[in-house]
Design a protein that fits this description.
Number of domains: 2
Distance between the termini: 42 Å
Number of helices: 10
Oligomer: single chain
Helix content: over 70%
Largest sheet: none
Number of strands: 0
Order of helices and strands: HHHHHHHHHH
Radius of gyration: 30 Å
């Protein structure tokens, strides 16, 4: 969800609600000892709980089609803004004091939920543009594993092509079309390239995105120097497959980067969702206990 001009009415509504709440709270706090059990304190608490419940309904709407009333964009905007407004309403309700362990936990959870939600909104606003700019080879996330396997298979074939182009033709009927027949044998160079492929290129292409961060070819300048050294070492006949291997490593690098950005984009939910569920549960317990006693 991008934060654009369509969020302006929600911003104005939020500012107006906080302003009205402040105007109500200031004389109220001066005329009496503010507490959550007073009429105004309870009103703020009910508003905060209502915002929390509405924000939680987004997951229900996503899960059950029968609940899909209104557009998804409107629900997302309401989820973001009303969920964020729960924090100032909680502060007004508690008179900016956490009295007791449960109240402290509720206030802490509210802060975590609101700020994790704001962080998630920031990621959703910025990462798609960043991914478009930094990952030209962006693909469907679920297909990344398959594509990496294909890249590894292609890389092995290109490595074979390099060896074939550098190895002199031998045996009856050997062709010289793809060999270097007018230069000395490149046995040591072939061995060096095979070792480079086996020790660096293939492990890098096999590695998962976290493990790949520790490998040398993860760094584009280092990888470029490695491949350029082999292009300088070998005749031009071997350059195309070497360049193809470099391109494959570059695509693998971008796929790993896409995985990391995807994890950033969705990883915040591992904090936001369980903490939100805990907050809602404890908020209902707090409301029942407060009304009963």
């Amino acid at each position: 969800m991008r934060i654009d001009s369509t969020h302006r009415p929600w911003l104005y509504f939020s500012i107006a609600l906080i302003a009205v709440s402040t105007v109500v709270y200031i004389p109220y706090s001066r005329s009496t000892t503010p507490a959550g059990s007073t009429g105004i304190g309870l009103t703020f608490g009910i508003i905060a709980l209502g915002f929390m419940v509405f924000a939680a309904l987004l997951s229900v709407r996503k899960r059950y089609r029968i609940m899909r009333i209104g557009s998804a964009r409107v629900w997302m905007k309401a989820h973001l803004w009303l969920g964020a407004l729960a924090l100032p309403m909680v502060l007004f309700h508690a008179a900016f004091h956490a009295r007791g362990l449960l109240a402290f936990i509720l206030m802490l959870l509210t802060i975590i939920v609101v700020f994790s939600g704001i962080y998630g909104a920031y990621l959703q606003h910025t990462l798609p543009t960043r991914m478009f700019r930094e990952v030209p080879y962006e693909t469907i996330y679920d297909q990344i594993g398959v594509i990496k396997e294909q890249l590894l298979a292609e890389a092995r074939q290109h490595a074979v092509n390099v060896t074939q182009m550098l190895a002199p033709a031998r045996g009856p009927g050997a062709t010289v079309t793809m060999t270097l027949v007018e230069v000395p044998e490149y046995s040591s160079e072939v061995a060096a390239f095979d070792a480079f492929f086996a020790s660096k290129v293939e492990p890098y292409l096999k590695a998962e995105h976290k493990a790949a961060l520790k490998l040398e070819l993860r760094h584009e300048p280092d990888a470029a120097r490695e491949f350029e050294d082999y292009r300088k070492l070998f005749p031009a006949a071997a350059w195309p497959p070497i360049t193809a291997l470099e391109d494959i490593c570059s695509e693998k690098r971008q796929l790993d980067h896409q995985v990391r950005l995807h994890h950033w984009l969705h990883g915040w939910l591992l904090v936001h969702l369980p903490v939100s569920a805990a907050l809602l549960l404890l908020a209902f317990i707090h409301a029942v206990v407060a009304l009963r006693y």
